[in-house]
């Protein structure tokens, strides 16, 4: 399977059994730049209602959080293009506030103000435009305009970035935020057991026919599943991997997970997986821990409040938190493992 096609299988459903009184229904739609798969146990009418409600909400969220669109975040970015402060649309105030809090906890490794850098690399559109990577001089110039994370504050509905022309991009956070919302909608519709898979990032509700959902984590350097975990009611499993969006130029591969400190793709990590009940936090943490890299991620995980983490290095070594080691089950091959305590 080509690596580009495998991105939708970053976290695969390995086990899902339906109860006889609650038939299993599978459906999918496309939104937020990815395929969103829904598995629910419900009667057919309730399943169809859930599909329609989730598809409509996902389309709304896509427009709202598109940094280059005409929704709420795009409108905010337009205002910031000529100022260091702007009014934040009501619909995204709570999300921006959460993003800034997580960014500060990460020490800026998850950085909501990274939009200009993402655009400079061409990762703001899918598929990426055919172009060489930016020059070191261009990257340096963009980094000099990156707003300091400690200077970014939201107060009384206004965002102060500390840097005129800053562009926000919540790509390392918005999918987790969307999963939270979509999961709540299923609950509000009375569906107690289900799974939502947004391009490999998941939220699970209830169980899979009297047992935990068992979810597979893609091998970032192979064609199949590296390991599986038993996911419990309300948990989200988020993976950031260097195989998800990339391009090759003159024999060198570049991916979309950019280090805000260097302006270039982070090189020390192949994938980072986080399990947490807070999907938005898991999403932001997976990004930050990927950038932090081997040996450095435990301090960042502790600061961000996550304790179920697995990081895979480019050489195939697995670094795990103690809580994740208790949950993980490796499949066909068992990599060299290092368990790292969180401070």
UniProtKB/TrEMBL annotation:
It is a lipid-anchor. Residues 1-18 form the signal peptide. It is an enzyme of class 2 (transferase). Its cofactor is Mg(2+). Keywords: Cell inner membrane, Cell membrane, FAD, Flavoprotein, Lipoprotein, Magnesium, Membrane, Metal-binding, Signal, Transferase. Flavin transferase that catalyzes the transfer of the FMN moiety of FAD and its covalent binding to the hydroxyl group of a threonine residue in a target flavoprotein. This is FAD:protein FMN transferase.
């Amino acid at each position: 399977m080509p690596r580009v096609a495998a991105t939708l299988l970053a976290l695969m459903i390995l086990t899902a059994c339906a109860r006889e009184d609650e038939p299993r229904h599978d459906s999918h739609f496309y939104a937020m730049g990815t395929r969103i798969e829904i598995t629910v146990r419900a009667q057919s009418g309730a399943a169809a209602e859930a599909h329609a409600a989730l598809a409509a909400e996902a389309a709304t969220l896509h427009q709202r959080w598109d940094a280059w669109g005409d929704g709420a975040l795009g409108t905010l970015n337009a205002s910031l293009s000529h100022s260091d402060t702007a009014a934040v649309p009501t619909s995204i105030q709570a999300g921006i506030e959460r993003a800034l809090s997580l960014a500060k906890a990460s020490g800026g490794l998850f950085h909501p103000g990274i939009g200009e850098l993402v655009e400079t690399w061409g990762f703001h559109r899918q598929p990426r435009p055919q172009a060489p990577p930016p020059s070191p001089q261009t990257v340096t110039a963009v980094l000099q305009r990156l707003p300091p994370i400690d200077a970014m504050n939201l107060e009384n509905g206004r965002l102060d970035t500390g840097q005129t022309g800053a562009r926000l991009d919540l790509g390392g956070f918005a999918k987790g935020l969307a999963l939270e919302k979509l999961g709540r909608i299923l609950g509000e519709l009375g569906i107690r057991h289900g799974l939502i898979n947004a391009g490999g990032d998941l939220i699970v509700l209830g169980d899979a026919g009297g047992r935990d959902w068992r979810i597979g984590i893609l091998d970032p350097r192979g064609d199949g599943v590296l390991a599986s975990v038993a996911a419990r009611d309300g948990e989200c499993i988020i993976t950031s991997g260097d195989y998800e969006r990339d391009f090759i130029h003159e024999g060198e591969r570049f991916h979309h997970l950019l280090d805000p400190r260097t302006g270039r793709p982070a090189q020390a990590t192949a994938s980072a997986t986080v399990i947490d009940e807070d999907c938005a936090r898991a999403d932001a943490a997976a990004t930050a821990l990927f950038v932090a890299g081997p040996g450095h991620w435990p301090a960042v995980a502790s600061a961000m409040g996550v304790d179920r983490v697995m990081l895979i290095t480019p050489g195939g070594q697995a670094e795990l938190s103690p809580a994740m080691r208790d949950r993980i089950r490796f499949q066909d091959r068992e990599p060299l493992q290092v368990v790292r305590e969180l401070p």
